[in-house]
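Reading a protein record of the kind used here takes only a little practice. The integers have meaning only within a learned vocabulary of local backbone shapes. With that in mind, consider the following protein and its fold in token form:
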Amino acid sequence: MHMNVTLRQLRAFIAVAEAEHFTRAADKLGLSQSSVSTLVRELETNLGLRLFDRHTRMLKLTLAGAEILPLARKAMADLDSVLGSSSQLKTLGRGRVSVAAASLQAALFLPRFIGRFCAEYPGVRVTLHDVSQDTVPELVRGGEVDFGVGTDAGQRHDLAKRPIITDTFIAVMPPDHPMGRKRELTWQDLVGVPLIGPPPGNPVREQLDFALAREGITLTRSYEVALPLTIVGMVEGGLGIGVLTTAASRLAEALGLTVRKVTRPVVKREMSLLFHADRSLSPAAQNFRDMLLKRPEEWIET
């Protein structure tokens, strides 16, 4: 029977016990006196206990009522605590956000967003997983992160995506490389030239190879490494020309390398926020996502 006890019954009981009067308790709760009397009577029936001794001019807790009152107060306090916590989560007073990003985005783009977000919501902890491009979708699909930032070349039914920006494929070379004399290169110029790029299976490489295959162009990589930083480092070491996107321009130019646009065709890469299609985001993760989507121009380095 006790499973039928309701919050309204407990509230009415506490109010009557504190006011020692049905009418005053009813005024405090904003209910009619008959409603409060009915709620207390229902609670007594559900508990199988008499909670009040009713006299003509007096209302006193029974011994059982006096023992149950602190328990009822604790139950209501616990509920208020839960509601307070949920309210805090809604307003982002606290919480956690986890995001996976390809190493370049993790290093050059996300820190400024994380800094701004944490300044606005200091109670929220943001965890950043800096990984290779092809690992980002796997972390999202496995539920290890709230969402990812990267490229998804596959048609995975369990991934949803929201495009942020597109960037363009470029060639990166040492400053004294003969091809640096040209203002623009074509993909045909790079056929047969020692190139450095991501390995097969990398979604960025797949986008490029697919676009070039339609033009009958096949590139050969002398070195295949997963991380853009390694590609740029190998270019600086004189091992070949790096095939990257404009996201790497800032890094390459900081190391004194030459960056050239490659045309015929101009190939673009779409960078997106990747989500698990069947999971909803927490309020904190939703707000962080909205911040990332609100200012796409900040993802582009000038």
Q: What stands out?
A: The chain is about 45% helix and 25% strand. The chain has a mean pLDDT of 88. Residues 2-89 form a domain with the Arc Repressor Mutant, subunit A fold (CATH 1.10.10.10). The first helix runs from residue 7 to 19.
